[in-house]
Amino acid sequence: MTTHVNVAIPEIRISAIQDIKLSDIDIPDNRARSFDQDEAGALAFIIAASGLQHPIRVRLVGDRFRLIAGRKRLEAFRMLAWEMIPATISTAATDDEARLEEVMENLGRHELKVLDRCHHLFELKQVYERLYPDAKHGGDRGNQHTGGKTQKLRLAADSDEVFGFAAATADKISLSRRSIELAVKIWKDLSDASRKRCAGTWLADHQAGLKQLAEQSHADQAKVLDILFSDPPKATNVSDALTIIAHGVVLTPTEKKVDTVKNTLRAMPDTVVAAVVDERLAEMQNSITVLSKFFAKLEDAELDKVVEQHEERIVASLQRRGRI
């Protein structure tokens, strides 16, 4: 049940902002950002104390307003039982233009969890390519227009991709081209079920884990999440969950090192592997020679001491060789 807190609205206003009834605002079902009720509750107390620092953004659809950005702020006002909320009105004429505003507004606020950022950047790429299809196929990089609307996110002259934003756009979202490409790939490669299961968990803000999870098949993604989200968890990171899938148990630190060496050797060309093996055999032969000289110089009493410390292994060696 939603908790209502009756608090007077602080008089904090910014120019060009309209007060709109909460009851006149609709929330689209296909929001780009996941919603956290607890975060909205925490925000409600902040707003009650200091007012709304950033108005929400809406657009007029028919005789009602449709939310573009500010879901948590809107829900915080509902919790406070306030009837009106400050908002700016978008001039977006289509759903795609509204989605472009939504993702850019959220990316610019730097409040997104890793999973949400991946979703936003994936959405940005899809929407941008629908709005400006020539950009996707390497069209004119100059003043592109869609229905007379000037392109707001102009591409760099040497890029066919949406990620070739002008420097000003890249600076606004504080992400490099490489980080944008990685985020889009993570979201694209995660199954829909994996995205939903990760939302609201620690993994939603763990880029390395999400990247490793996205690199697996959809079937293995489900297995990994079963392991991570079991009660109690059978593993605390994606890497260990994958190890459990492969070996049945989490490897010890020594076993992990051995496994790493094995994987490294498998990735090497046969000629390189042969050279590594020859080098290791030469090291072992040298060690045997050194030990042989060491034992030869020992007095009987000293040799007895060494044998006493390694008696079981020495006896087993003599048995293998048929000497006893």
TrEMBL record:
Name of one Pfam family that matches: ParB_N
All residue ranges annotated as the ParB-like N-terminal domain in the record: 18-107
GO cellular component entries: chromosome
Signal peptide region: none
Listed GO biological process terms: chromosome segregation
Name by which UniProt lists this protein: ParB family chromosome partitioning protein
Source organism of this protein record: Phyllobacterium leguminum
Domain of life: Bacteria
